[in-house]
Every structure is written in C-alpha cells, then in structure tokens.
Amino acid sequence: MGNLMRATDEKRFDGVFVHLDAVARYARRRGARDPDDVAAECMTIAWRRLDDVPADDALPWLLGCARRLVLAQRRREQGRVALDDIAEPRFEAPEPVGLDAALTAALLELSPMDREALLLVAWEDLTPAQAARTLGINPVAFRVRLHRARRRCTSALEARLSRPTPDVRSETEITHG
Amino acid sequence: MVDVITLLRRHDPAAHAPAVADPAGIRTRIALEPRSGTRPARRRASSKRRFIVAFALAVLALGGTAVADRLLTASDVFSSPDAVGQGDSNAPVHPVAGSERAVQSVSVPGIGSVQLWAAEGSSVTGACLGLRFPDGTWGAGNERSGGNGPACFTERDDAMFEGTLIATGIDALETDVDAPFNRIVYGIIDSDRPATAVRIVDRVTGTTTAVVDGRYFAYLDPRADRQRDDHTLVAYDAAGAIVASEVVAPGSGTAPADDPNAPPAQG
Q1: By the CB < 8 Å criterion, does B162 face chain A?
Q2: Which site among A138, A155, A157, A171 would you substitute to test the B interface, given the most B Cβ atoms closer than 10 Å to its Cβ?
Q3: Which of B95, B97, B103 has its CA nearest to residue B121?
Q4: How much is the pLDDT for A171?
Q5: Which residue, B137, B134, B136, is CA-closest to B107?
Q6: What is the pLDDT at residue A127?
Q7: Do A57 and B89 make contact, defined as CB atoms within 8 angstroms?
Q8: Nearest to A166 by CA among A86, A81, A101
Q9: What is the rounded CA–CA span in Å between residue A75 and residue A67?
Q10: String of DSSP letters for chain A
Q11: B164–chain A nearest CA distance, Å
C-alpha cells in the first residue's frame, strides 16, 4: 500500500517537476542570486506539500513559491528578517533585473501586483487564468489589472521618448494595449 | 508599432538562459526527502473542460475577449468559451439560460448608448457581465475598445491556493473606447448578499449612479483621461448604509481602503 502511494506521488510529482526550468527562468528574471537553487528549493517544497499543489496546473503555484523565495532571499541579504521568514503580510514582488533603464523605470512606476501581472504574461507566458491564480485573484480582476498595467507602462515609456536609451529607441513607437 | 508586452518579450533577460544543470540529480535528491501529511485531493476540472478553456485562451490571447460578431446574442456571448469562467478551470461559471438581460445603459460620446448586459451565473458566487455597443458588437478587444470583455466569473478570490474563496465586495470592470477616449466602469456587487444597494458613488470623481436590481452598475468616468483611473466606489442601500466598497489607488491597482474617511473594504 505504501509503495503504491509512493509510486502515485512520484508520478504526480513528475508532472510538477517538468516546470523546473520555467521556475528557474522566473527566478533569474527577478534577480535571484542562484536561480537554479531557487527552482530546486521550490521543487523540494512542492514535493513535501504535494497535496497542496494543484494537480491540473502546478505552474502558478510554483511561481508563487518562487516569488516568495526570491523576496525572502533579498530580505535576508538586507538583514530584514529571519532566515526562514517568507511570510507575506501584503503583496510584494521582486523587481525585474537585466532590462535597460527606460523599461525598468517604466515597470517600477507600476504597483508590485500590476507589474507582476504584466510580467507573468509577458515573460512567463502565462494565460490570464494562470496568472490570476499565481496572484490569488479572480481572472476578471486580473484582466482589469493587466489592462491598467499595459496602459500605465506604455504611458511611462512614452513619457521617456524625449530621452530614450539607445536600446529602446528603435522600438519606442508603442501601441496601447 | 510595438505593444508593451511584445517589447518586454524582446528584452527578456532570461531568453537565452541555460537550462537548470543536472535536473536528474535534483529530482533524485528531492525524492529522498520526506513527504508531509496527506489530504484528500480536491476535485479537478475534466480534461475536456481544460481543453475548451485552453482553446478559448488561445483565441483570447491577451487583453480581453474579442467577441465582435454583431449577430451574437447575449446568450451566445455568455455561453461562449470566451466568456465561460474566463479560463478559470477551478471555478468555471456558466450563464443560467434565460436570465440574460440588459440592465443599464451608458451614453458614450462618439459612440452612443452602450448597454450593460447581465446574466445569473451557474454557481452561487457567479455572474455574467458584458457591454454591447449600439452597432450590436460586444466589447472589448475589438479595434476601438480595450479592457474587459463579456465574462462569466466567480466573484471570489482564491489567494492561498486552498479553494478558500474570499468575497471581493464590488467587482468593478472597465472598458476603454477611443476616438474620443472614454472609460466605462461597470460591475456587480456580490451576488450572494441581499441585493439591497440602490446607488453607487465614486468618491474620487463624485459620480453617483443608480444600482439596478440591487447589484449592477455602469457609468462613464467623467474625467475621460487615459492616465487617471483611480476610484473609490461605495455602494449604499436605501437607508444610506454602506453595502460594499472598493478602492483603486492612483497608479497602484486595488488597495485596501485605509483612508479613515473611507468605509471598510469588502475583501
């Protein structure tokens, strides 16, 4: 009986583990010092808490896990909290890294949740429903956020057109989403 | 012409990131870890439904539904994969047949009278809402409008992945139209509460709008400003008591109602 349950768990976990690279890419985009380590730690947590991981689509759960781990890592580096503290009294999201200055500045004008809404769709390639689950909000509310985030990010970029960075200059004709 | 999402994708800092090293080793080490206690698995959506949802989302892509066929009725629109559950396989909502009706209209400069249509949802906390333009098309996602399209949805959030759905009070949606720019704000007050609201006030703009059937509202943001979209919605019953509220702070999305003069936020 125990072996059968173990085999069932292992099979189910295989469906979770296929997202290892996607979780690592998320961590890299959010500035994790060791993205592979974040991904491996998320997978370990997912294994321990396999019953909490949605069986039909684990990726939103995993990205939520990765977001908390990256935030916790940054807090540790800043000496703000204890090592094991990944509690989340209000929504926070790690800032994106590796972008040119104009895009970074435009993204930082958004609230953390609006920014995360935009990036989950743009970079993680999540569907609106998946991204909504990652953020813990209903899909319709997510669409409002995404719509606002696109509009605000576009406006922020347009405001910088008079002084664009060379990297973005060639693509600065922005459409409103 | 480049959309901001397209631009972000072109500048993806992980586009050429290497795959995680030694995944098999990681997998083997994890399997040696102990499992925590088990609980009964939750019911999951069928694969057929997941396929329908995935197909709908592939059609939808980004930024709202694209239901533009002027021959579609409200029943067609709300029953379509585009609208049903908005792709939430955990809580799909279908319209109750025959409950579709126009509940309110908003006069939009350059457009005319835009109707808010509603239908009851198949779940206790579900509802359907959509805007119909004078030419018979449905917003948004067509060439002239963006934002929310027709949708059937649960009026709850599942913030902790535990199937614990949290009441959200007022669900405010918005659709923008261009030439000239205008923003239509519409929504519903939690459908499993007594439908006692009679008016809703946006304390930011001072807009007061009647609430239909105790739940539904729609109004035109008088600012007609692409950049200014904050609002503080407060719904009142006939006695002037607050029924529900929602705050969207400037530039920050939905936020708790921490203004001491504001009513307590619902969810």
Answers
A1: yes
A2: A138
A3: B95
A4: 54
A5: B134
A6: 86
A7: yes
A8: A101
A9: 12
A10: -HHHHHHHHHHHHHHHHTTHHHHHHHHHHTT-SSHHHHHHHHHHHHHHTGGGS-SS--HHHHHHHHHHHHHHHHHHHTT-S-TT----SS---PPP-S--HHHHHHHHTS-HHHHHHHHHHHTS---HHHHHHHHTS-HHHHHHHHHHHHHHHHHHHHHTTTS--HHHHTT--EEP-
A11: 10
User: Nearest to residue A7, comparing CAs of B35, B24, B40?
Assistant: B35
Give the bridge partners for B108, in sequence order.
Answer: B112
Which of B4, B5, B144 would best serve as a mutation to test chain A binding (most A beta carbons within 10 A)?
B4
Q: How far apart are CA A83 and CA A71, in angstroms?
A: 11
pLDDT at B11 over 80: yes
**In this complex, which of A35, A43, A111 lies closest to B253 when CB atoms are compared?**
A111
What is the four-CA torsion angle of A21, B44, A13, A59, rounded to 10 degrees? 20
ipTM greater than 0.90: no
Residue keyed to tokens 């607050």: B242
Residues present in chain A in total: 177
Please give the structure tokens belonging to residue B130: 């959509």
B44 contact A CB<8A? yes
Query: A-chain residues within 8 Å CB-CB of B57?
Result: 127-129
**Would you call A86 exposed, middle or buried from its count of C-beta atoms within 10 A (0-12, 13-18, 19+)?**
middle
Task: List chain B residues with CB under 8 Å of A35.
Answer: 17
Which residues sit opposite B218 in a β-bridge? B186
Measuring CA to CA, how many Å separate A172 from each of A13, B30, B134? 43, 46, 35
Residues of chain B with pLDDT > 90, as a percent, come to: 35
Of A5, A56, A109, the CB nearest to B251: A109
Give how far Cα A160 sits from Cα of A106, A110, A168, B1, B239, Å.
9, 15, 10, 17, 49
Mean pLDDT over B65-87 rounds to 70
Q: Write out the two tokens for B142.
A: 């067509």
- The vertex-B135 CA angle with A148 and B189, nearest 5°, equals 45
